[in-house]
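Regression test case RT-17, inverse folding.

Input:
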């Protein structure tokens, strides 16, 4: 399966040389082959050279897109010459697609401005964008106003655009699972299901008593329980964990997986304390870690918007995400801090991962009831962090996004942990506090902030604070 499928509109204006259109189609097809992108575009014989200029061309292209609507993740508008702005806008309108749009225009060569090679795409792109805006469509621009498809710069543009498509389409259709009630002390993670639904995200809820009741019905020697036990002990070192705690984890994991699959959920958030410890005798962190590692992000403390933040980061990076606390200062360094949870981070963040107990929860719930956390330290590397929250008072979704780096600075503590360096961190922390964001933040390895900003702001219409991101 191709890593992405994009509809392609080749814009044309008939008094420009035909060869520019033929060359442009071949450029795009060659690029898509090299990047494993599947094109959905008119054949050269279906319209004039497979381009879109007239209303009849727009109808033909739109019909092609409608027939492939379930596969098309985004649209690329390519302008080998000036193009016909109405033809492009009519195609998008008639297709009925609601996907991201990338507009690319070819550059002219200074020594080839004769009638035979002149493009004027520089000007045509402005007209196309004007018409898309008149028709009510939002779109993404390339880094440079004109750019050749074979350039490294456009390849970077296209990589980012694919990420934007994954985030936008994923969030617009996300199904989220809330397991149990929010811990009473955690007012900070309250959210509006209605605001999430307005952006296309649905929340399915279940009482933890139902989950634990089903887990209790599974026998220790059940074949699925034994298979899950092998998965857990193969996932992380568990030498210090009592056997019965591992069995309980296995049973709970089976029931959670069944519930997720039955409801076709992409992410979850669990009531991770304190009912689970008191009534079942384990922590669910290892199971949550395993789900996140399998690209089914799972958040603590029924933090549904935290789970959405994780899912967005995962879609942008195509790697696991984790939820953590902005937890500790790092000495007197104003640009470093400690990310921590007790913890449920995916194994990809913790090369030397071990299943242990939760010392902090153990002080009140009993250490013997808190086995199931994953413990480890994240090594140095790039990180992108983000937070999505529902601003119920103002009836909107707000976000912040930024980048930094994990460091190898010394850190002597327990749980899932990392030292993070963020330029101008103090300004970011002031913004978080003054604007009422949660103490939880989601993270993923790599730098994908630009992808999230474009997806959140341009296509989802959310408020975005871009920490350290160029305006």
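Golden output:
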């Amino acid at each position: 399966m191709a890593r992405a499928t994009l509809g392609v509109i080749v814009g044309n204006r008939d008094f420009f040389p035909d060869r520019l259109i033929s060359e442009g189609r071949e450029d795009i097809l060659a690029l898509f082959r090299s990047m494993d992108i599947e094109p959905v575009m008119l054949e050269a014989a279906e319209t004039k050279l497979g381009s879109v200029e007239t209303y009849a061309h727009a109808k033909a292209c739109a019909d092609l897109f409608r027939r492939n609507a379930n596969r098309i993740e985004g649209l690329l508008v390519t302008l080998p010459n000036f193009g016909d702005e109405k033809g492009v806008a009519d195609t998008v309108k008639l297709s009925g697609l609601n996907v991201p749009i990338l507009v690319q225009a070819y550059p002219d060569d200074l020594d080839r401005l004769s009638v035979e090679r002149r493009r004027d795409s520089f000007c045509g792109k402005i007209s196309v964008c004007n018409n898309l805006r008149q028709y009510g469509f939002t779109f993404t621009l390339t880094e440079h106003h004109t750019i050749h498809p074979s350039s490294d710069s456009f390849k970077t543009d296209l990589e980012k655009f694919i990420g934007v498509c994954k985030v936008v389409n994923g969030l617009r259709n996300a199904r989220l699972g809330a397991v149990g009630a929010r811990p009473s002390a955690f007012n900070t993670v309250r959210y509006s299901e209605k605001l999430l639904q307005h952006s296309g995200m649905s929340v399915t809820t279940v009482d933890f008593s139902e989950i634990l009741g089903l887990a209790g019905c599974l026998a220790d020697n059940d074949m699925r329980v034994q298979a899950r036990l092998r998965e857990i002990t193969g996932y992380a070192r568990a030498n210090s964990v009592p056997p019965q705690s591992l069995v309980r984890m296995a049973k709970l994991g089976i029931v959670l997986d069944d519930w997720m699959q039955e409801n076709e959920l992409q992410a979850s958030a669990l009531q991770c304390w304190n009912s689970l410890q008191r009534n079942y005798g384990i922590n669910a962190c290892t199971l949550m870690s395993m789900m996140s590692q399998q690209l089914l992000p799972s958040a603590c403390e029924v933090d549904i918007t935290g789970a959405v933040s994780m899912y967005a980061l995962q879609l942008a990076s195509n790697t696991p995400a984790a939820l953590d606390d902005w937890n500790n200062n790092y000495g007197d360094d104003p640009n470093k801090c400690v990310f921590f949870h007790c913890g449920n981070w995916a194994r990809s963040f913790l090369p030397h991962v071990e299943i242990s107990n939760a010392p902090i929860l153990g002080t009140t719930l009993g250490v013997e009831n808190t086995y199931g956390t994953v413990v480890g330290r994240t090594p140095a590397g790039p990180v992108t962090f983000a937070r999505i929250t529902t601003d119920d008072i103002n009836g909107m979704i707000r976000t912040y996004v930024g980048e930094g780096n994990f460091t190898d600075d010394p850190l002597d503590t327990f749980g899932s942990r990392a030292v993070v360096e963020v330029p101008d961190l103090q300004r970011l922390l002031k913004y978080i506090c003054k604007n009422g964001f949660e103490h939880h933040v989601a993270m993923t390895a790599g730098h994908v902030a630009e992808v999230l900003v474009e997806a959140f702001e341009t296509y989802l219409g959310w408020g975005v604070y871009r920490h350290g991101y160029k305006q």
